Amino acid sequence: MTRTPARSVAEWIAEFLVARSVDRVYGLQGGHIQPIWDHLAQRNVRVFDVRDEGAGVHMAHCHAVMTGQVGIAFATAGPGVTNCVTAIANAQLERVPVLLIGGCAPVPQDDLGPLQGIDHVSIMRPVTRGARTLRTADNILRDLDKAWATAIGDGNPPGPVYIEIPTDVLREIVPPGVVLDEYLKPKPPRRIPVDVADVARAAALIAEAKRPLVISGRGAMGNAAEVARFLDATGALYLDTQESRGLVPGSHPSFVGAVRARAMKEADLVITVGRKLDYQVGYGSPAVLPNARWIRIADNSEELRENRRGEVEFYAHPGLALAALAAAVGRRNAVDPEWTKGMRNEHVRRSSKYAEELAKAPAGNDGHMHPNRIFAALRNVLRPDAITIADGGDILSFARLGLEAPRTYLDAGTFGCLGVGTPYGVAAALLNPDKQVVVISGDGAFGINAMEVDSAKRHGAKVVFVIANNAAWNIERLDQQMNYGGRIVGTTLAWSNYAGMAKAFDLHSERVTDPSRLVGALEEAFAKAPALLDVVVTQDALSSDAGKGLGWVPSYQALTAWDDAEKARRK
Ligand SMILES: Cc1ncc(C[n+]2csc(CCOP(=O)(O)OP(=O)(O)O)c2C)c(N)n1
Ligand SMILES: [Mg+2]
Q1: CA dihedral 363, 366, 367, 372 (to 10 degrees)
Q2: Per-residue pLDDT reduced to its tens digit, 398-430
Q3: Near ion ligand 2, which residues have CB within 5 Å?
Q4: Active site residue 476
């Protein structure tokens, strides 16, 4: 005798998501997925419908980053799924757990030329951790449990997973006798324990180091207390990266973000915590980190041993490893206090000087304000717990430095995925109705998912979009100006009226041309959100990324200074 009622596959999918505490999904409807959509609605799961499936995946991605849970997106068969490829690839590079559930033509029509019929799985496989068609009703919960575990990593890097279920299979009844509770039940996250031999070897290395530096990454998130305790125990300096911004407060004496390149050059021991050695950290190259020995800490292979091998590699839960190390090291070590204090002082000097100059940044030759005026104004308006999102080229570079570091912050990331700002902002605001959520976007980047201002309005997401309108894909325009003989081709836009566009969707909006109006306009925008400020800024401002050659794409490294160091190493 079983007490499990007979349910369809679609109903079991909804049951499974509820059992895993999913309270919202993002997506765009279509007949192929309607059976699941309907059961979600019957269970009061919020369905946030969007104007393009890719934006729904970006929202699920932001949801996962903000909550630490799996983000769920839905897309119907054919163009619904293919619209998601870019956003799924973004989640793959960022190692963010997103589960995309797609539609699929019924099995009896397989290969006959069905409506919206295309081999989604082959398209999705290279950009996901796993992609499958689920064809067997009996196995649906087993398959969902596996997809979930693959998304969260569970020993491997986390990332996006794609599954699809043919519509006729969604309507099949699952025999109650085959439903196992073990597939339905949520599982506590796996915490890989620490090998004590690693602790002893690493503690010895740390005790010898004069200039130790911790670099955190995605895998360090959720371990703020352990990272801080380790820094306090050792006196090591600390750098965050795009994915771990906000983990350690800027007030911590180890934080030296403003002297990043110098800290990397001079460190004699680098401890990576859940950090992949990608372009942001010079691939770990000896050209960029010439004096470093390495300790690597991660619970998955990608963040543990790619590019540079550690003298000690902790394959362990990062929080457990750091706690064990903090307990083992003690304060008796060789750390050079002149180095750590000197670096910290220089960090404080540079960042305060930068902050002071924001409000004085001069207008360009075109008479329009410098984009840094936006960040000077935001510093007057944003509360400490505000959520900030940046998207674009030059403006993203200005934002990274201009937004007070570190706070909750997301941007176009490792994939350089222009267009994430608007959907990230919507999802962040839906999750945090009581916090300020601001998206600072270039006019170019904004255009890619601009229709999602409509989703913000319809769902009551209290987000403020600030468009830095310089009528250009400016970081690329500047590259053409500096490196291609000034031939400007396909990189200018119009001084379009984005405030007018937002008004058409019933958002509060304003075009701002006078920097003295920024604070007032921002305050009003937060009070009336969702809102959009169309801020006219100069094309003449050179961002640090433009200056460091990010637009130019050097051969060996992302930044020209590091690229030059690589070339010097080869001589
Ligand atoms: C989807 C996508 N297309 C193109 C690029 C190349 N790209 C990087 S930055 C940039 C310019 C962005 O312009 P905008 O958002 O207006 O910011 P601005 O540089 O003007 O501040 C471009 C085209 C990219 N990274 N992603
Ligand atoms: Mg622009």
Answers
A1: -30
A2: 999 999 766 789 999 999 999 999 999 999 999
A3: 442-444, 470, 472, 474
A4: yes
